[in-house]
């Protein structure tokens, strides 16, 4: 296991930003301490040819803008909060309304636009980086000081493991995830609609026209949201206005990482399996990509990638029937997501 550190760029205030590349015998990934952003995941195909399967940019300057959230850590609360408001302990809190009057990914000052403290590590089994940050009370409009520790690791078995840990001094919603855009054919290989997906989920969360949950959790049987058996992403996508951007309720067998999804690209032979301790996963098919200038001259258009954002349910602070997303003092937020790669 190897880890290499280099300077990725410099912010306008003169602060240097680092990029770490972690490598095992077969594959590698790179991550920066700006927004804990994964900038590349290089995996061989069935012929042994390595390709970068994560969409992204070539420069720090592009990641500073990053309107589509390529590769980043999202928080304090990932996904949408209706009306940009929620109530907790009898008090109403107001957030940044950056998405049709709602709050998306905690607004314009999300954790993806902040520099994190970082500490690399390496041993025979895994190597990676641990990121640290304290989010003060009131940041983004959320109550409570939140101390976070996020670990990104690559194992000898071709797993990328993201471990989330946080504690607070006051009750607060917490929902952390990673927003990597994947294309198993290669980041610049075009549409993902011919790749197959299986979701280990019997139920999904319907949404309104602004992608806000209706409050229901429905069976996938007989709907375009049924991915219980592997099927091409594009098979039923036309029956879903705009494409997939929905939360599925993960079938849970316990508190250890549960199977979430399996993805396979028949052209390259690459496969990806996702495991997580989270209760939900947002499956997103890159519906809003349009002429995005990406790394190495690539241009990303609609359906150029998929995301599998393991998470608490969207708008759960306003939905009492959803799994509880409130972290209390004395408790610890602790979740893990694993991406395993085969080729």
Your description of this structure?
- With 343 residues, this protein is an all-beta fold.
- It contains 1 helix and 29 strands.
- The two termini are 19 Å apart.
- The chain has a 9-stranded antiparallel β-sheet, with no helix packed on it.
- It has one helix at residues 60-65; strands at 2-10, 16-23, 28-32, 37-44, 50-52, 73-74, 80-81, 85-88, 91-94, 103-104, 117-122, 126-135, 146-155, 159-168, 172-173, 177-178, 196-199, 203-205, 218-219, 231-232, 245-249, 258-264, 271-276, 280-284, 292-293, 299-300, 307-311, 326-327, 333-342.
Keywords:
single chain; mainly beta; 343 residues; globular; 2% helix; 29 strands; Beta-galactosidase, Chain A, domain 5; five-stranded antiparallel sheet
